Amino acid sequence: MTATPDLGTRTPQHASPDLLRSVFRQHAAGVAVITARGENGPVGFTATSLSSVSAQPPMLSFGISTGASSWPAISGADHVGVHVLGEHQEELAATFARSGADRFGAPTAWREGPEGVPILDGVLAWLVCRVVARVPAGDHRIVLAEVVLGDHAGTGRPLLYHQGRFNGLRD
After folding, report:
1. CATH number (domain holding residue 117)
2. Is residue 124 part of a domain?
């Protein structure tokens, strides 16, 4: 006998962008900033889609909308920076998520790193990765990138995104 899920009095919704957004608001995700060198200077965006893909070779993935202001640079970049944010960096996450913001202006602290990739200061961890593929996925691209080098020596606790807000871990 197979168990039937208890749907209560609610009627399931058909697939839609709103359903997907609503479901993923229930999913807590770590917050990262992806950076790259663009033709007109550094670009970057806040991502909650960061995922480990492979340990050998070390590889990760993230998603980006093809309508994002950073997409033109990411679409042609050989290397990207991946930054894991700490709970003390809520404003930095909001800056890189805001359309039209001067993401690399003060108070953002950063430097040019290996392969010309912008590296953000004060993060929990960062990686420089070589882009190996950009896979079409609806109105997004899934970027697969192989880790070249990085640093995991930052201190603090991770920043999370849940219910449309940035949060810290709770004990």
Report:
1. 2.30.110.10
2. yes
